């Protein structure tokens, strides 16, 4: 590695890729966190909510030690045993520890000793994360949904009276004798293949469709439990939107189906999305704003990669002025019909509503597809691709200005607080509408891409000790360190769809009778 590409010796920092290099993804993340509370991108199976509630209840009753290390010991053993149960049954996905379980179950022995694998200090633990999937994924959501709560006098959480006690009881009652077996095996630290087969009804996919346990998970997700946090109503509305979409599509939606159908108001085949409930229409507008913000930051991140791709061609670097001038001129040369002002460029940018393979090339969907193709690590963003990103940014600004519900202005923030969103970018473009096209492009690249990245990277270094600079400056020249490109945020839709499958409201084909009855 060239010495110039190393971080300064005084930083003592962790070198990372430029995660969120423009600091704009937070606007999207904060929106989807509000839209799907109580579920995260790493809470992969619904039945874990029952497992942890049952485990904390059983721990309190049979162990009763308010020592956090003892609780951790039980959590890690329970998770690894659950992975062995799931792997033995079907090799299910979304279960922590399946790689360890797969190897262990293929050993030529009738007993699996999992005690050592549950030890975080062992040479080969199932997870290095100290608190396993419980600490890394589920605990925060269990508390947010009110399943677990803090106990008086000791740090070990307990099931809440409102919902946790019910989930604990019903998970244990799924097969009462199996709960006893599970806890005995957990304590022992070894399990036979025959015991794993008997424990199969506790696996994540084995929630009985007609059981009280399944109904309890539905009540939790759809806010029918006592003392449900007020914000959880947004999760309920999101899940109903997913079921409504599946019902209209006649198939199980993907996260892409959800994003684009809620954004455009159309299904992939062009049929209009039918939402008769005003509350659902308002919630769909919130998802529209999320997607608007997500597309906005990807446009600017694409311009960042375009600039970095140019810089890659100059090993000794360029001055900041030379880099901006070359990037701007290449885009200007790409225009088949020269334009004088940004307003003229905006007027001449075509847009179309819709998405899917048969929709018009001018839709946001197709513009994003081009943006993502050009921004792959093994591809380069050319001037035409950068122009496409600018055109998409224009279309998004037009969509924002046509926002009749006022969602954009309701979430407005100024540049002074450092927050960036579709609102701040729309305001900037409006303020420069009458300026020359090349001047606006240069300003975008200089101020809203390069300078913005340096400001964000400096803050990460100062407050987090993370070295995320993609460029470095030396003797008046800017040199490439490494590249990063646009990233779509992941708004918990895949997990939400999987949860609905786990509780038999969706299946691999479409909505089920249980799901259809819920939305009627």
Q: Could you explain how this protein is built, in words?
A:
With 520 residues, the chain is mainly α. It is built from 22 helices and 8 strands. It has a two-stranded parallel sheet with strand order 1-6. Helix 1 (25-35) runs antiparallel to helix 13, helix 7 (164-173) runs antiparallel to helix 10 (212-221) and helix 13 (278-312) crosses helix 20 (437-464).
Structure in a nutshell:
This protein is mainly alpha-helical and 520 residues long. It is built from 22 helices and eight strands.
Question: Percent helix among the residues?
Answer: 40-55%
The separation of the N and C termini measures 62 Å
Q: What is the mean predicted local confidence, pLDDT?
A: 92
Strand order of the largest sheet: 1-6
**Total domain modules:** 3
Give the beta-strand count.
8
Q: For the CA atoms, what is the radius of gyration?
A: 26 Å
Helix count, DSSP H or I runs of 4 or more residues: 22
H/E element sequence: EHHHHEHHEEHHEHHHHHHHHHHHHEEEHH
Largest sheet: 2 strands, parallel
Query: Shape, please?
Result: globular
Question: Strand content of the residues, in percent?
Answer: under 5%
Structural class of the helices, strands and pairings? mainly alpha
Q: Ranges with pLDDT <50 over ≥5 residues?
A: 1-14
């Amino acid at each position: 590695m060239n010495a110039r590409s190393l971080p300064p010796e005084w930083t003592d920092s962790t070198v990372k890729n430029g995660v969120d290099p423009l600091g704009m993804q937070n606007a999207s993340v904060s929106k989807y966190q509000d839209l799907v509370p109580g579920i995260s991108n790493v809470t992969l199976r619904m039945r874990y909510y029952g497992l942890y509630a049952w485990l904390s209840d059983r721990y309190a009753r049979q162990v009763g030690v308010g020592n956090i290390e003892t609780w951790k010991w039980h959590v890690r053993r329970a998770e690894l045993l659950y992975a062995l149960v799931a792997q033995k049954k079907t090799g299910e996905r979304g279960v922590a520890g399946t790689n360890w379980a797969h190897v262990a179950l293929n050993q030529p022995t009738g007993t699996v000793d999992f005690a050592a694998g549950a030890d975080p200090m062992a040479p080969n633990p199932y997870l290095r994360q100290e608190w396993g999937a419980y600490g890394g994924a589920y605990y925060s959501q269990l508390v947010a949904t009110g399943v677990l709560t803090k106990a008086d006098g000791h740090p070990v959480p307990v099931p809440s009276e409102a919902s946790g006690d019910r989930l604990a009881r019903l998970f244990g009652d799924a097969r009462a004798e199996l709960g006893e077996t599970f806890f005995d095996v957990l304590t022992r630290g070894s399990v036979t293949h025959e015991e794993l087969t008997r424990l199969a009804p506790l696996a994540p996919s084995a929630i009985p469709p007609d059981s009280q346990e399944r109904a309890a998970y539905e009540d939790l997700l759809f806010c029918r439990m006592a003392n449900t946090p007020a914000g959880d109503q947004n999760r309920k509305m999101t899940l109903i939107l997913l079921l409504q979409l599946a019902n209209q599509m006649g198939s199980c939606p993907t996260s892409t189906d959800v994003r684009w159908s809620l954004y455009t108001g159309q299904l992939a085949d062009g049929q209009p999305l039918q939402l008769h409930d005003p509350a659902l229409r308002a919630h769909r507008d919130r998802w529209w704003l999320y997607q608007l913000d997500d597309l906005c930051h990807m446009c600017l991140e694409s311009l960042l990669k375009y600039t970095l791709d140019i810089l890659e061609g100059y090993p000794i670097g360029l001055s900041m002025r030379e880099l901006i001038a070359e990037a701007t001129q290449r885009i200007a040369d790409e225009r088949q019909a020269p334009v004088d002002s940004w307003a003229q460029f905006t007027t001449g940018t075509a847009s179309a509503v819709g998405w899917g393979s048969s929709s018009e090339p001018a839709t946001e969907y197709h513009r994003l597809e081009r943006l993502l193709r050009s921004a792959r690590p093994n591809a380069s963003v050319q001037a035409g691709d950068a122009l496409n990103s600018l055109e998409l940014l224009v279309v998004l600004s037009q969509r924002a200005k046509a926002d009749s519900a006022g969602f954009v202005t309701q979430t407005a923030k100024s540049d002074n607080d450092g927050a960036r969103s579709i609102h701040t970018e729309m305001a900037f473009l409006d303020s420069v509408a009458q300026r020359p096209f090349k001047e606006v492009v240069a300003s975008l690249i200089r101020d809203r891409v390069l300078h913005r990245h340096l400001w964000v990277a400096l803050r990460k270094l100062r407050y987090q000790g993370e070295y995320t600079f993609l460029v470095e400056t030396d003797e008046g020249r800017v040199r490439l360190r490494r590249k990063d490109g646009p990233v779509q945020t992941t708004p918990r839709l895949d997990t939400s769809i999987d949860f609905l499958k786990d509780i038999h409201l969706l299946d691999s084909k479409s909505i089920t009778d249980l799901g259809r009855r819920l939305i009627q």
